């Protein structure tokens, strides 16, 4: 399947000399919810801003719906709706005027029926004549989304959609994003909240210091989450595992002093008894053992941890 966004070897270094993005390769599939997860300053906003044509790329290429963002900027941009991190509140105009104006900016013919349905879907129809400054914070966010969708884009970017939003509003936002996906909109959201990625995303990408360090189906990631680990602290270090013990779920760590066994905690037979027996047969003794469960949070923290 043709990706709806294709990013190849994208680099960006700001004038300050700071390398914000390094050799990014990423494809976004049509109709998916993709969560880009990363700590402050990782490069999330820079990446979105380049795709949306707000920041110039350094080198590499980006296509949106097959259109190159530089050579074919207008065609590429018209496919995108962007809800930026910073919310700008145009004070005095009405909700209706704001969404009509946004649609016009993209050169689209007026379509009141489409805009009415959009405002209804976003539970804003009864506020259409209200001036934006009169609305609550949650409604203002929804107005930003309505504006972003006013020109019928196929792709919606949500940069930190629920930053500083209370739990109830966050859940409403998630509900709304799912409805948009049902309508066929591809959604890319950035977030600091692991819970949000876990709840919403079809796929998760993790970015750290300008590099994409993981892209994975959420379900696959969650299956890995169900894994438990048994760590055996060995009495004598091993330089390598005997052939009978070389397998994917067993790893030597800590200069050979630790043996880590990963297993599925849901299974009745965890394989621990058999493992301990094999260790005994090979004369591998341990002085201590501990078991632990990894969470998405653990995976994320260990991935983004600054090891330098
Ligand atoms: N206009 C700019 N000029 C110079 N450096 C910049 C500029 N914009 C961003 N940066 C730097 O590039 C890096 C990536 O910033 P970016 O805003 O993309 O990160 P982010 O992942 O969106 O962070 P946050 O989660 O805090 O929004 C940061 O180190 C930032 O200081």
Automatic annotation (TrEMBL):
It comes from the Bacteria. One of its GO terms (molecular function) is ATP binding. Residues 5-234 form the ABC transporter domain. This is ABC transporter ATP-binding protein. CDD domains: ABC_DR_subfamily_A. The keyword ATP-binding applies. Keywords: ATP-binding, Nucleotide-binding, Transport. The lineage of its organism: Bacteria, Pseudomonadati, Pseudomonadota, Gammaproteobacteria, Pseudomonadales. InterPro entries: AAA+_ATPase, ABC_transporter-like_ATP-bd, ABC_transporter-like_CS, ABC_transporter_ATP-binding, P-loop_NTPase. The keyword Nucleotide-binding applies. It comes from Phytopseudomonas seleniipraecipitans.
């Amino acid at each position: 399947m043709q990706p709806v966004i294709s990013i190849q070897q994208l680099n960006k270094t700001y004038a300050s000399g700071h390398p914000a993005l390094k050799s990014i390769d990423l494809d976004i599939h049509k109709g998916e919810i993709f969560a880009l997860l990363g700590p402050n300053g990782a490069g999330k906003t820079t990446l979105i801003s380049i795709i949306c044509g707000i920041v110039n790329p350094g080198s590499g290429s980006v296509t949106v719906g097959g259109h190159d963002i530089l050579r074919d900027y207008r065609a590429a941009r018209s496919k995108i709706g962007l809800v930026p991190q910073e919310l700008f509140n145009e004070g005095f105009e009405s909700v209706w005027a704001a969404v009509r104006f946004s649609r016009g900016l993209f050169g689209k013919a007026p379509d009141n029926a489409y805009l009415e349905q959009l405002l209804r879907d976003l539970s804003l129809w009864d506020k259409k004549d209200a001036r934006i400054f009169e609305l609550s914070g949650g409604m203002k966010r929804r107005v930003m989304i309505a504006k972003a969708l006013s020109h019928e884009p196929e792709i919606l970017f949500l940069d930190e959609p629920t930053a500083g939003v209370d739990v109830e509003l966050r859940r409403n936002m998630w509900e709304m994003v799912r409805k948009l996906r049902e309508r066929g909109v591809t959604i890319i959201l950035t977030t600091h909240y692991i819970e949000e990625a876990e709840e919403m995303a079809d796929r998760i990408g993790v970015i750290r210091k300008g590099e994409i360090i993981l892209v994975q189906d959420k379900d696959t990631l969650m299956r890995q989450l169900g894994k438990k680990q048994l760590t055996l602290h060995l009495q004598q270090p091993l330089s390598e595992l005997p052939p009978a013990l070389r397998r994917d779920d067993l790893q030597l760590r800590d200069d050979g002093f630790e043996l880590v066994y990963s297993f599925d905690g849901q299974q009745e037979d965890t394989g621990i008894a058999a493992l301990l027996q094999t260790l005994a047969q090979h004369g591998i003794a341990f002085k201590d053992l501990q078991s632990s469960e990894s969470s998405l949070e653990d995976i994320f923290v260990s991935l983004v941890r600054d090891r330098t």
